[in-house]
Amino acid sequence: MNPELQGRIFPPIAPYLVGREKVREFARAVFATNPINLDPEAARAAGHADIVAPPTFAVVVQERTLAQLLAEPDAGIDFSRVVHGDQRFSYSRPIVAGDELTATLRVASVKTLGPHAMVTAESTITDAAGEHVVTAISTLVVRGDDA
Amino acid sequence: MPGTPATDAATSSTSAALPVLSELAVGDVVAERSYALSRDSLVRYAGASGDFNPIHYRDDVAASVGLPGVLAHGMLTMGLAVQPVVDWAGDPARVVDYQVKFTRPVPVDPATGAEVTVLAKVGALEPDAGIARIDLTVSFDGATVLGKAQARVLLSA
């Protein structure tokens, strides 16, 4: 992997409109059963504008930024050798249906560990007003030749 | 409708009174649940998340890269493991921070699937911030599959 990636900031992704049915589809896929994830009336009764996305839904938006990183011509990342090492989501506010989000990826660090390389990618997700919603941080391990 | 409903091993949390920070102690078990994953679960998650890596649905591809079989998406395991915490807290918006390390894969047998269990305990209390840190023990086949699995949950004092 190219160590000069460290510190690189990618252009923001095209706006992602959070659809109610997409949130429901994702919620069912992660076995979410809380009514606030599924039922707009329950969500409104709890003070939300619409149904609330599960805590890991931000990965759907983050993935679009990781695709930018993997496609970067000088990155030298072989997708077939990538293993997900760790993941974190830090929210300023929840994602709700109707949000229009964008995300900007910054390569926080690039490290080598023997034959392997580790890249930590930090995607800052903001709403249409430019306010912070959630930061999604992934560490990807790129296995070396003898892995 | 999902083909593989979760089995709730603990008392139902959605109808219980909402947790209050001052009534919690480090070490309290707040939720316990098990999830029956099938290949259907993986296909459903692939479609919902957009992660179509074939190691999550093709045995031949999984074998060709040296895996023990088709694996659950790490993000599926992460996504379901926090659900008992969401139900305990009463609102998904209360989970303000959630992190895991992916330490072991979860192979999902085409016929018998895989059972993933989640045990959620109070790991730390931050009264000034109104936060309880809930630590998750997520296991498959007798071993943990996530490390440092921690959800920070905003609660009333």
From TrEMBL, chain A:
Tell me the Gene3D superfamilies matching this sequence.
Hotdog Thioesterase (3.10.129.10)
Question: PANTHER family from the xrefs?
Answer: HYDROXYACYL-THIOESTER DEHYDRATASE TYPE 2, MITOCHONDRIAL (PTHR43437:SF3), HYDROXYACYL-THIOESTER DEHYDRATASE TYPE 2, MITOCHONDRIAL-RELATED (PTHR43437)
Q: Which InterPro entries match?
A: FAS1-like_DH_region, HadA-like, HotDog_dom_sf, UPF0336/Enoyl-CoA_hydratase
Q: Its family? A: Belongs to the UPF0336 family.
**Name recorded for this polypeptide:** UPF0336 protein GY24_01150
Q: Which SUPFAM superfamilies match?
A: Thioesterase/thiol ester dehydrase-isomerase
Give start and end of each FAS1-like dehydratase domain: 15-135
Q: Give the highest taxon in the source lineage.
A: Bacteria
UniProtKB/TrEMBL annotation, chain B:
Q: Which residues form a coiled coil?
A: none
Q: Which domain of life is it from?
A: Bacteria
InterPro entries annotated for this entry? Answer: HotDog_dom_sf, MaoC-like_dom
Listed CDD domains:
SAV4209_like
Q: Where are the transmembrane segments?
A: none
- Using the record's annotation, list all stretches that form the MaoC-like domain: 29-121
User: What is stated as this protein's family in its record?
Assistant: Belongs to the enoyl-CoA hydratase/isomerase family.
Q: What is this protein called?
A: Acyl dehydratase
Origin species, per record, is Microterricola pindariensis
